[in-house]
Amino acid sequence: MKAEKVWRLGSMGDMQILPGSRHRPPMKKPMWIIVLVLFVCVFLICAYIYPPQSSSACYVFSSRGCKGFVDWLPPMPAREYTDEEIASRVVIKDILNSPAVVSKNSKIAFMFLSPGSLPFEKLWDKFFQGHEGKFSVYVHASKTKPVHVSRYFVNRDIRSDQVIWGKISMVDAERRLLGNALQDPDNQQFVLLSDSCVPLYHFDYIYNYLMHTNISFVDCFKDPGPHGNGRYSDRMLPEVEVKDFRKGAQWFAMKRQHAIIVMADNLYYSKFRSYCQPGLEGRNCIADEHYLPTFFQMVDPGGIANWSLTHVDWSERKWHPKSYRALDVTYELLKNITSIDVSVHVTSDEKREVQSWPCLWNGIQKPCYLFARKFTPETLDNLLHLFSNYSAP
Fold it and tell me: Which region among 12-26, 91-105, 147-161, 286-300 has the lowest average model confidence (pLDDT)?
């Protein structure tokens, strides 16, 4: 209306100056064109913000899996990488693109991270029997020199150092184990285990499970809460951004190429060594829960399964998972663990959002776990008695 009023005043002025024009029919303001243009603009903006999900609309608007007019726009400017990032990415990309080393005698490296002696050596001895040449054993004992009762563990101790829970020394121990295991070219899969870990299946099943897949089983999920992204420090910038910060259990099964890039990495590791510590800047950042998940999220997110092959029970919602006692260890307990085929994570924020996805092995949903942990030493006899029964898939 305001625009119309201004136009009319202007026309009256014209009439005073040019009286002869008073017989000219007045021009009508094309309001319908303005309304139509505004409507189209609003429609396009809404369609851009809330793109249609049906495939039939893909040719008009951008949607997942299709291209549209948004693709005509210039790409968002990427930040400039530092020299160190460029060098690191070149090395990692080259390793990942190189063909896998073919071994005539592929082995699994079982890497035990322990404060001292391993309480379940007798169980592992039973697990390894008859499969010589298909596995290697490495023991990192951080406090006391272990006493071994199984021939498979004798002389398998590596040079170890002190490990403090929550600090980067835990990641250092993992890398130390990987470094030693990588010296054997036949080792193609690398499994990190604790002193409280036990196998859930017989050796052949676990061997075939790992050798016939091309991904690594590294736990990784996004937690927006205080025990997830709340631990992130801006001092990790520019190399580590909060959008890539992830969380996960430290217990992994990793293929050889991934083990090599972990050993080759110094850039991202140094960021976690400096800025992911308990109590730093008021945050309790636990390096072994964040370094590997974040690292793989940045360099090869499609190459990991996003769950760990080692089961642990967090149902008590404490700082440490539930420990199994002798009375807890029954055939039913072990069968229940081996029947789980969905990976579940719960965020640490107020929403307590449950994130779950099926455990897919080469596209087939299978049980998630090959190992389980937090068994106390008193459970050994029960486990030895039950092993031949529960370990059959």
Answer: 12-26
Decide: residue 336, CB within 10 A, 0-12 exposed, 13-18 middle, 19+ buried.
exposed
User: Of 44, 362, 319, which Cα lies nearest the Cα of 212?
Assistant: 362
Gyration radius of the chain over CA positions? 30
Strands 310-311 and 371-372, by their bridges, are: parallel
Binned at pLDDT 50, 70 and 90, residue 314 comes out as: confident
Distance CA 243, CA 224 (A): 10
Which of 66-80, 106-120, 313-327 reaches the highest mean pLDDT?
Answer: 106-120
Task: Name which of 251, 135, 136, 161 is nearest 198 in CA terms.
Answer: 251
- Tokens 């998630």 correspond to 368
Residues 6+ apart with CB under 8 A from 246: 220, 221, 222, 223, 290, 293, 294, 297
Please give the backbone phi and psi of residue 206, each rounded to the nearest 5 degrees, phi first: -65, -40
**Spatial separation of the C-alpha atoms in residues 269 and 169, rounded to whole Å:** 12
Other residues' Cβ atoms within 10 Å of the Cβ of residue 182: 16
Q: Is 308 exposed, middle or buried (0-12, 13-18, 19+ CB in 10 A)?
A: buried
> How big is the CA angle at 328 (ends 313 and 140), to the nearest 5 degrees?
60
Percent of the chain beyond pLDDT 90? 71
For residue 185, say if its preceding peptide bond is cis, omega within 30 degrees of 0. Answer: no
What is the rounded CA–CA span in Å between residue 159 and residue 173?
10
Chain center to CA of 304: 7
Residue with tokens 């403090």: 164
